[in-house]
Structures are given as structure tokens and as C-alpha cells.
Amino acid sequence: MMDALQAALRVAGSGLAAQSARLRVVSENMANMQSTGASSGADPYQRKTITFSNELDKLSGMELVQVKDIGVDQTPFQVENDPGNPAADKDGNVKLPNVNIITEMTDMREANRSYEADLQVIKQSRDLISMTIDLLKGT
Q: HSE-up of 113 (CA within 13 Å, CB side)?
């Protein structure tokens, strides 16, 4: 069984990894928000989604957050009339990615704040461990 400070470090570490993966997915979505299909009538970039799950860590007996799945958003593509676009179909319509910049910015902000909170837990736990070692040295 782990002590409370080591447990806090493991939980916060799993949170850092999960939020880092979330930030990568959001960044990929934002980078591809204008990526149309490679050929006439082809589907454009499809927004990726990420889901998390709690996994029991047998070593510590705690539940840690893990990336469960990276999937794709099934919302329909936007269609825009742009006959000059190489990705346009025979009617001049181009399918645009189902990426919404406001949604992505909101997800990025939330992931960033969660990442910072986990980082703060790690810093506080390290400080408490250092203080404990200093106290033990003094006796």
C-alpha cells in the first residue's frame, strides 16, 4: 500500500498524461479545421474526440484516469458552395470539416486548467515530501 503523498503523485501523473493526450487531440482538430477532401466530393477531416475511463492500478489499489478511446465525431459536415475548389463535387459543393473553433478553444482551455491543477498537486506533494525528509533529518 502506498502512502498518501505517493498516491497523490500517481493520481496527478495519470491526470497529466490524460490531459496531455486531450490537448494533442484538440490541437489536431484545430490544425485541420480547413482540411477538405483530397479529391472531388471526398470527405474532409473528421473531428476527433477523446474519452477517458478510470482504471484500477493494482500496485497502488487506486483508480487512475486513462485514455479509453480516441474516436471521431459523427456530426454532419458543413457544406459550402465553392465551385473553384478542387474538392468540390459536380454541383460545386465542398464538404468542410465538422470542427467548431469555439468548441475546440473551450476544450483546450478546460484541458489546460486541468493540466495546471494536476501539476500543482505534484508540486505540493513534492514540497510535502521534502519537508518530511527535512524534519526526519533534524531528529
A: 6
Neighbour count for residue 125 (Cβ, 10 Å) = 19
User: Cβ(95)–Cβ(37) under 8 Å?
Assistant: yes
Cell 459523427 belongs to which residue?
Answer: 74
**Is residue 42 within 8 Å of residue 97, measured between CB atoms?**
no
Instruction: Map residue 95 onto helix, strand or coil.
Output: strand
Res. 100: pLDDT tops 90:
yes
Residues 6+ apart with CB under 8 A from 87: 36, 37, 38, 39, 40, 41, 42, 44, 94, 95
pLDDT per residue as tens digits for the range 31-85: 999 999 888 878 999 999 999 999 988 877 888 999 999 999 999 999 999 888 8
- Residues paired with residue 96 on neighbouring β-strands, in sequence order: 78
Q: What pairs with residue 63 in β-bridges?
A: 56
pLDDT of residue 60: 73
